[in-house]
Amino acid sequence: MILSELVKLKIELKKYADLSAYEDEAYRVTDNLKAVRATIADETLDTQISELVGIVKTQTYLTKKMFHSKYMLINEIIHAEIEAQTTKYFAAGYNVHRPDNREVDTGSKIPLTPELYAMLLGRIQLYSDWHYPGLEIGPYDGEFTSHLVGCDPLYLVDVHRKYLEDTVEKFNPEYRARVRTYFIGDGAGNNEKGLSVLPNNQFGFIFSWDNFNYLPFDEIRKYLTDIVRILRPGGIFLFSFNDGEMYNGARHVEWNSKSYVPRSLLITLVESYGLEIVNSFGFDIDWHNISWLEVKKPGKLETVRAHQTLGIVKDIE
After folding, report:
1. φ/ψ (deg, to 5) at 157
2. pTM recorded for the entire structure
3. CB burial of residue 290 (10 Å; 0-12, 13-18, 19+)
4. How far apart are CA 291 and CA 219, in angstroms?
5. Helices within the chain (DSSP H only)
6. Nearest-CA neighbor of 225 among 160, 279, 269?
7. Which residues, 6 or more positions from 80, have their beta carbon under 8 angstroms from its beta carbon?
8. 93 confidence band (pLDDT: 50, 70, 90)
9. CA-CA distance, 232 to 272, in Å (whole number)?
10. What integer is the mean pLDDT of 85-90?
């Protein structure tokens, strides 16, 4: 079986992992039988019903135990096969998943339904606050950048200089001068500088959409190292990724179009940096996987700013 089929089978089997419904049904049956026994004076019938109660309990217990053993065995087989197949995907490099000549166009982006788009914008607006600087990693065509202007100031970083230039050009000259851009690439789409150019404990909100979806696991690890450093205590990092534990996510891995980042392993990595998982979302829609995490740096988000930075108004004659 290929990876996506294994993932699909694992998801389907998980629906039957909890047999509590059977157990609840057994209790319901035995309670009903006990109620019947209370109204029967016949000793023989009482004995027979008592035995029936015992059979129901025993059969349910044995069925549950046998099912659980078989379920665990099948899961172990699936897990071993997934591990065997995904070794090569973990080893795959950056250029395999994200071509250097990737153009800025709507066809290359994660397609969001109107409901999910509104949901994501709501999350962005929740965390964008003029009291704190904000950062967007990989703005591409700037689709979401305009919704981050609530952060003050707003920083943009990308491994492609063109994406930075195209995004900033969308703003009027006055705001354009306030946006702080940093090119962190090597000219070939690789992350050469990381986020080392950015100050410690600076950002209240960091956002990255449709960027980590193409990064191998080790590259995400490097980013997280910097993100923990530059986030303020209490700050939020929201980022999308390609969840290899979901069917469409696994299919994109097979097509070499996106990186293999299983949610469970990513959460373990995030928590190893001391970050708290605030929210975890995942959707398979049509041919695409739409997944993101919202993580928080421990501590309380604080500021001494009483108002936004204002320009000086001069009377010129």
Report:
1. -130, 145
2. 0.80
3. buried
4. 18
5. 3-14, 20-37, 43-91, 94-97, 114-127, 161-168, 173-176, 217-230, 247-254, 263-272
6. 269
7. none
8. very low
9. 18
10. 81
Distance CA 256, CA 89 (A): 9
- Give me the DSSP letters along 248-259: HHHHHHHTTSS-
3-state SS assignment for residue 283:
strand
Helix H or strand E encompassing 279 = strand 276-285
Average pLDDT over residues 76-103: 67
How would you classify the pairing of strands 288-296 and 231-241?
Answer: antiparallel
- The 10s digit of each residue's pLDDT in 260-292 is 999 999 999 999 999 999 999 999 998 899 999
Distance CA 164, CA 182 (A): 8
Dihedral (CA of 143, 148, 149, 153) sign: negative
What is the dotted CATH code of the domain comprising 106-296? 3.40.50.150
Decide: 260 and 90 in contact? Cβ < 8 Å.
yes
206-224 burial, b at 16+ Cβ within 10 Å, e below that, comes to bbbbbbbbbbbbebbeebb
Write phi, then psi, for 282 (nearest 5 degrees): -155, 130
Q: Which amino acid is at 68?
A: H
Omega before residue 262 within 30° of 0, cis: no
> What is the predicted pLDDT for the residue at 23?
59
Residue 159 token pair = 């491994």
